[in-house]
Amino acid sequence: MVEDPCRKIIHIDMDAFFAAVEQRDFPKYRNKPIIVGGKPDTRGVVATCSYEARQYGIHSAMPSSQAYRLCPQAVFVKPRFEAYKEASSIIRQIFSNYTELFEPLSLDEAYLDVSNNTSHQGSATLIAKDIKASIVKKTHLVASAGISYNKFLAKIASDMDKPNGLYLITPEQGNQFVEKLSVGKFHGVGKATEKKMHTLGIKTGIDIKEQSLPFLLKNFGKAGHYYYNIARAIDHRPVNNHRYSKSVGVETTFQVDIKDRRQVLQHLDLLFNKALKKLEAKKMAAQTLTVKIKYHDFVQITRSKTLSKIITDSTEKNLILEGLLKNTEVGRRKIRLLGVTLSSFKDPTQLLKYQQMDLFE
Questions:
Q1: pTM here?
Q2: Where in the chain is the domain with CATH 3.30.1490.100?
Q3: Residue of 109, 179, 251, 361 marked active site
Q4: Which of 350, 354, 345 is nearest to 275 (CA)?
Q5: 123-140: per-residue pLDDT in tens?
Q6: What is the homologous superfamily of the domain 175-230 according to CATH?
Q7: Which of 281, 283, 272, 294 is nearest to 342 (CA)?
Q8: Within the chain, which residue ranges are assigned CATH 1.10.150.20?
Q9: 150 and which of 12, 235, 237, 277 could share a cystine (Cβ 3.0–4.6 Å)?
Q10: Would you identify the CATH topology of the domain 7-169?
């Protein structure tokens, strides 16, 4: 299938969103290195930080203690999620004035398909510029916008000229742009995959493009199809304004590392129950249970099990959790974080129907 060059996709990404809301609401924080997240004397991490803080090498997901060492004068602020949700709600209302096809990815970013918007002479760039102006007017917050003919390129474009960016990648520029792009800049390529690509001699988009599909599938599994296409600037994914959660998860970071295996199982049991309640609130059911373990040295592992039936509070969870901890170093290494995620969502009524069919077959 050939990429449709007539599509007009905008990716809006709010600049340092949480920190920007704090600086907007509290003038004393303006022009200062602001870190939203846990305090440096806790086991917290950086949720986001202002551009003033980023100059010191601070970034999201960094331990707060490390951020403090990099910038002792930084101001650490506890997150105010209600304030962020309120701002996000206003921003989404702005999106709806331009198109019904917008896909929120989080509180601070979204894709918009403006292919059928005839305002501004049908120019997606002018529409993006107007959206940015509306956001500033109604929220006093700044956004960056990327414009292109597919989601992959639009997201890449929104990162090109931050903060307050506005960047366009045309159909004529797409292929050449991707060929020169380092693989670490590819959305969907994490640190581990980037390292693996480098060991295979793949450093830029053109290096991926030169590989055969069988080679990519052999080395990267199902993701090989994705890499094969985006290396050719092809991304057929539609902007989906009916996104559903693919998982429900809860986790906890301990103030003091834990090591005792029984204590680990007790915490996992509590997290499982919390995750199940969140799942039930969504009126959904799951078949996959994943345990996340982060050791004291920040090495992180996950273990998953998919059941043939839906997961309930009567599921033999203790046996499953015990099984997931096998072949791990739980009980031998200290742990700073535990998490439980339920996924492989199903509509419970449909799943029951399938199980009945299997029974009678």
A1: 0.73
A2: 247-357
A3: 109
A4: 345
A5: 999 999 999 999 999 999
A6: 5' to 3' exonuclease, C-terminal subdomain (1.10.150.20)
A7: 272
A8: 175-230
A9: 235
A10: Alpha-Beta Plaits (3.30.70)
Question: Residue 331: left (phi > 0), alpha (psi -120 to 50), or beta?
Answer: left
**Is the distance from CB of 183 to CB of 207 less than 8 angstroms?**
yes
For residue 163, say if its preceding peptide bond is cis, omega within 30 degrees of 0: yes
Q: Which two tokens stand for residue 286?
A: 């799951």
Q: Is 109 a catalytic residue?
A: yes
pLDDT at 343: 87
CATH number of 247-357: 3.30.1490.100
> Are 46 and 62 within 8 A, CB to CB?
yes
pLDDT along the chain (361 residues), means of 10: 74 97 96 93 89 96 94 95 93 94 93 94 96 97 98 95 96 95 89 93 96 95 93 94 75 92 95 89 84 91 89 81 93 94 65 36 27
Distances (CA, A) of 347 to 266, 282, 283, 309: 29, 10, 8, 12
